[in-house]
Specification:
- The protein contains eight helices and 26 strands.
- The two termini are 41 Å apart.
- The protein is of the alpha/beta class.
- The protein has four domains: 160 residues, 3-Layer(aba) Sandwich (Molybdenum Cofactor Biosythetic Enzyme, Chain A), CATH 3.40.980.10; 50 residues, Molybdopterin biosynthesis moea protein, domain 2, CATH 3.90.105; 84 residues, Molybdopterin biosynthesis moeA protein, domain 3 (Beta Complex), CATH 2.170.190; 72 residues, Beta Barrel (Beta-clip).
- It is elongated.
- Strand 23 and strand 24 form a beta hairpin.
- It has a six-stranded mixed beta sheet, with no helix packed on it. It has a six-stranded mixed beta sheet with strand order 16-13-17-21-20-18, with helices on both faces.
Length: 401
């Protein structure tokens, strides 16, 4: 197996990024999706001069000329029309969110007013424009609020609702099949014999994909060459992405690379100078451009390669920026080997600095280590040790608690 460098493998994966089509979804299903349209303000924000306090609204010029007492002409609450006309000798009671009358240009809080028999007396000095959120002071009608290729979070949902977007145009998500291989794997609700293990990789990838709003198809293939060929042929034709775990090393029953070639999937590389995940196989169908990420079967290798390669591939395909994070080492680490190493780490935030500490692992089959880790640091080969407090690239799959 001729190995290529990690940098070369990463570049080849990103060179295959798709341009996804668009679809329309309801606002209730838009969370986590990526906008495929620009969103503009359909009116001024706020759409009227809005009171930010409970109190009285009046004309500042009257206060400026020495008036302290004002006749209360009515009350305006949030959600109703405002008082139609005010004289300088008058005021209205107004609640937070209420529409300030056209003539009024100041609101005085109840705490600074004494009211007796329909007359409001101001007890403190007044500043012009106080406690009024002016019409259009946030954004004007027609202003760009959300750009295309923005990921929709709860904050964006609020904006979409405010401008009346009950349906939103978003990028389509790829159809993904998660495929486990190996006759030693059994269902998770079965009791394994000594030589058997439960199918954990499938559920790990399933959960990771759900985090991106993707509902994958789950398949399992036994170590039978004919069955593998038949099922892969159908899946390649029907799905955009195949994520496989297992069957790509040099074992007698590792049929995947040979069968993929027979099915018209062009190998872009097989074998990367990295640990874990060295036997990673990556290719693309010559007929429908489906991509195949065929990861090694060890749990840590599968999980690491998913986040190292597929996650940035998906982000770039959706028009999102690939987030690059660095963490500060809490110890000196050496990578004098010839391969790029991805090491499990626990993260912590200290004085705004993201610090990373190594997690001891037994091997790439140490599934439990993933639950104790927050991500992987990437250490390229070099003679000089990575020093204490040095910043190193971090592949983060969980943020510090």
């Amino acid at each position: 197996m001729a190995l290529i460098s990690f940098d070369e493998a990463y570049k080849k994966v990103l060179e295959t990024c798709y341009t996804f089509k668009e679809e329309t979804v309801s606002i209730k299903k838009a969370f986590g999706r990526v906008l495929a349209e620009n969103i503009y303000a359909d009116r001024d924000f706020p759409p009227f001069n809005r009171s930010t306090k409970d109190g009285i609204a009046l004309i500042f010029r009257a206060v400026e000329q020495g008036r302290k007492a004002f006749e209360i002409k009515g009350t305006v609450t949030a959600g109703e029309k405002t008082y139609p006309f005010l004289e300088e000798s008058e005021c209205i009671e107004i609640m937070t969110g209420g529409v300030v009358p056209y003539e009024a240009d100041v609101v005085v809080m109840y705490e600074e007013v004494q009211i007796h028999k329909g007359i409001a007396n101001i007890s403190k000095s007044v500043k012009p424009g106080q406690h009024i959120h002016l019409k259009g002071s946030d954004v004007k009608k027609g202003a760009l609020l959300l750009k295309k290729n923005t990921k929709i979070t709860a904050a964006e949902i609020g904006v979409l609702a405010t401008v009346g977007k009950s349906e939103i145009t978003v990028k389509k998500l790829p159809s993904v099949a998660v495929i486990s291989t190996g006759s030693e794997l059994i269902a998770i609700d079965e009791h394994p014999q000594t030589h058997e293990v439960r199918k954990s990789n499938s559920y790990t990838l399933y959960a990771a994909l759900k985090n991106y709003g993707i509902e994958p198809l789950l398949l399992h293939l036994p170590d039978d060459e004919d069955i593998i060929r038949q099922r892969l042929q159908i899946t390649i034709q029907e799905m955009d992405i195949l994520l496989l775990s297992g069957g790509v090393s040099k074992g007698k029953f590792d049929y995947i690379p040979k069968i993929l070639g027979q099915l018209g999937v062009k190998k872009l590389f097989h074998g990367v100078a990295q640990r874990p995940g060295k036997p990673f196989w990556f290719g693309q169908s010559t007929t429908n451009k489906s991509l195949v990420f065929s990861f090694p079967g060890n749990p840590v290798s599968t999980f690491a390669n998913f986040h190292i390669y597929f996650t940035p591939w998906l982000s770039q395909s959706l028009g999102l920026d690939i987030i690059k994070i660095k963490g500060e080492l809490t110890e000196t680490i050496t990578n004098s080997s010839s391969i790029t190493q991805f090491l499990n780490v626990k993260t912590s935030l200290e004085d705004g600095i993201l610090k990373v500490s190594l997690i001891n692992t037994n091997s790439s089959g140490d599934l439990v280590s993933l639950a104790r880790s927050d991500g992987f640091i990437k250490l390229a080969p070099r003679e000089k040790p990575y020093e204490l407090k040095e910043l190193v690239p971090l592949v983060l799959y969980r943020f510090p608690a």
